[in-house]
Amino acid sequence: MADPIFGWLDKARQLCNRDPEFRKLGSCDARVGVKVDDAAFVVTFEAFECVGVAPVDVEALRDTDFYLDMSRERWRELLTGGAEGCASLVSATVDDPEIVRASSPLNALKFDRYHRTLQRFFDRVAALAAATAA
Fold first, then answer.
1. pLDDT, position 2
2. Run of H or E including 111
3. How confident is residue 97, by pLDDT bands cut at 50, 70 and 90?
4. Half-sphere exposure in the Cβ direction for 132 (13 Å, CA)
5. What does pTM read for this prediction?
6. Residue 134's pLDDT is what?
7. Which of 11, 52, 88, 123 could form an SS bridge with 44, CB 3.0 to 4.6 Å?
8. Domains of the chain (ranges plus CATH)?
9. Cα–chain-centroid distance for residue 39?
10. Mapping DSSP to helix (H, G, I), strand (E, B) and coil, where does residue 8 land?
């Protein structure tokens, strides 16, 4: 059975690419990994679009600019804003700086640079996850 997270990520890609407000956030050039327990995905942003979402082996995350590493439960809390969830990716990383993993300090800075684009993208993922749960 396919992981529903992949479907949410890919649908969020489509929605963001049709959203003129997403473009207004500015250019984003990053290969962002998403690690959920033992599942991994790469979300690729180029210029003003999200150009790809792909499931990958966990080892492939080393080739991303950075990746976000959380348990399935932690992702659920973040996406649903549950009792222990966070309102944003930034607040989640303040509480747990180990969420953002990067091969170099320079790559880690891309999270800070592009966090608004990433937040908009994951807000879409959260809406899709909520719609699925309803």
1. 63
2. helix 105-133
3. confident
4. 15
5. 0.90
6. 58
7. 52
8. 4-127 (3.30.1050.10)
9. 13
10. helix
